Amino acid sequence: MDTLIIEGGRPLRGTVTISGAKNAALPILMASILLDEPVIYTNVPDLRDIHTTLRLLDILGCPAQFRAGRVRVEPGALRTEAPYDLVKTMRASVLCLGPLLARMGEARVSMPGGCAIGARPVDLHLSALERMGAVFNLDEGYIHGRCARLKGARIQFDFPTVGGTENLLMAASLAEGDTVLENAAREPEVVDLANFLIRCGARIEGHGSSEIRIHGVPGLHGCEYAIMPDRIEAGTFLAAAGITDGELTLVNCPGSDMEAVLDKLKAAGLSIAPTADGRGLTARRAAGGLRGVDVSTRPHPGFPTDMQAQIMALLCVAQGSGIVEENIFENRFMHVQELVRMGADIRLSGSTAVVRGVPGLTGAPVMASDLRASASLVLAGLAARGVTTVQRIYHLDRGYEHMEVKLRAVGAAIRRAAARD
Ligand code: UD1
Question: For FRET with 208, which of 111, 159, 337, 418 sits at 20 to 30 Å CA-CA?
């Protein structure tokens, strides 16, 4: 297992190109199952989760080729089983459920287990698909779904689940009649999926609002589609500029989907401005330095849970305190104990963390527990005095494209090493 070794204390300066969004690419790649024709995707990030998705597509009968951010998927004779070996490494595999039911009338998908950040059930996906006529059994650890042609329905989600909304958008696109999704997720990645489906001939309205209307069509064609930029990667690099007291320009990063993150980073003492061409952002620490702010994670357009760990790293070295409340996942504070090992002052009580800023962090060996927790440890390591070794960075490789290469190019002393354990 690889580790990252970081010598902290160097301000980062330069330009970083933001990659395509992992969380948009995963459902959009999975939507290939719905198509009658080949499809080409561009701006696809080179990540472990993307390669897992391409392996799954291959197993399901849609062979895919990845070359330098460009993916071609060729729909073939579909198979309906998503095996445990793949699903256990990536929960988002469950996104094949809606497309398989819509296209094949059957899907056998290994039940995703719990994961480091919580139980993460898929009950909302299943009950919504049941409203469209699917019937599910749990069979030897597999969710086995069957249906005749799915029928449009009015579906109200108890919670605006991102994956559930995506599964239903895909299923309803090929269903018979109209589907209305109420209390749907409004995340930009859901909007990117809807835009992709529309490019393939789907009839969808209201994406980006909490009520989405889908008029089912008999078939979908291929197209060429560029995946949106990754707003979480962008937010992480903005935080890196602030925590190292450097200045970074991010390109391929529109910023329009990032208001909640930009507002909080500015309140925490960053100066952030759009670049002259409007397609990027420049960030540095403002004159007053970093300040404590309160952060509460919410579904979009609120502050994203996927940026909670990174902003917490920033608050660790800010003046004053900040309260961080996690409302989306029940167990997403595993970075806290590791940050404390680096000298942070954080008190945890249930879903709330009180972060009191300290003058500086010190390097230490730390362990990554999930994707965004890993990013927060890297940020802390970049700011800390001395050497930080981040272990188990395979989590980071699931979601950040060549992170240490990008950081090195803007002045970080960071290298990857094969772990001794
Ligand atoms: C997606 C993102 C993830 C992000 C999350 C919230 C992808 C691949 N992953 O995850 O990075 O952190 O949105 O923005 O896009 N829930 C249920 N039952 C369900 C579905 C969800 O109880 O059927 C709960 C989950 O356990 C969790 C909460 O709802 O506590 C949010 O989950 P959801 O919005 O579905 O997130 P994901 O799609 O899994």
Answer: 111
**Ligand 1 pocket, residue 164 CB under 6 Å:** yes
Q: Is the pLDDT of residue 343 over 70?
A: yes
Instruction: Give the number of C-alpha atoms closer than 13 A to the C-alpha of residue 356, restricted to the C-beta side.
Output: 4
Q: Please state the rounded mean pLDDT for residues 18-23.
A: 97
Task: Give the whole-angstrom CA distance, residue 367 versus residue 265.
Answer: 26
Query: Which pLDDT score is estimated for 116?
Result: 62
Report DSSP state, residue 18.
P
| Beta carbons of 234 and 281 less than 8 angstroms apart | yes
Ligand 1: centre distance to CA 206 (Å)? 21
CB 315 within 8 A of CB 334: no
Residue 186 CA to ligand 1 centre (angstroms): 13
Residues 96, 115, 147, 200: which is the catalytic one?
115
Q: Does residue 115 carry a pLDDT above 80?
A: no
- Gap between the Cα atoms of 79 and 61, Å rounded: 6
The answer, yes or no, to whether residue 117 has pLDDT greater than 90, is no
Overall average pLDDT of the 2-23 stretch: 97
> pTM above 0.85?
yes
Residue 35, SS3? strand
Find the range with the poorest average confidence among 55-64, 118-127, 174-183, 316-325. Answer: 118-127
50, 117, 129, 162: which to mutate for ligand 1, most atoms within 8 A of CB? 162
173 C-alpha to center of ligand 1: Å?
A: 21
The question of whether 115 is a catalytic residue gets the answer yes
Planar angle of CA 100, 119, 393, nearest 5 degrees: 90
